[in-house]
Write a structure and sequence with these properties.
Layout (H helix, E strand, L loop, with lengths): L1 H29 L1 H24 L6 H5 L4 H34 L1
């Protein structure tokens, strides 16, 4: 009984992942301008991650070595966290700006 539920969840996960990838591509073929906007967003995130990677610290604590985390892995994790924090702050500021803008109109 448990195996059937797991296989069903795996199937749904695969269908959702394929849908999330294929359906926007189908829409982009009909409207290439939306694909350009998406590529600009992805490019901006990659640039932000690159800057975060350059700023991130690569120090490793002794307890992390037991888990197999080296300097490169530590730097990638730090870059991911910095990217997350920057995007979180930008989203929060955008939310505040949009609410203030909507209240003033």
């Amino acid at each position: 009984m448990l195996d059937i539920g797991l296989y069903f969840c795996y199937t749904l996960l695969i269908v959702a992942a394929v849908s999330a990838i294929v359906l926007p591509l189908i829409k982009a073929v009909g409207e290439p301008r939306s694909l350009l906007r998406s590529l600009i967003g992805v490019g901006a995130l990659l640039v932000l991650f690159g800057i975060s990677y350059a700023v991130a610290d690569s120090s490793v604590r002794p307890s992390w070595l037991v888990l197999g985390i080296g300097e490169n892995t530590s730097k990638i994790i730090g870059a991911g966290l910095i990217t997350f924090y920057v995007v979180l702050v930008l989203a929060f500021l955008g939310l505040i700006f949009s609410e203030i803008n909507k209240a003033l109109k």
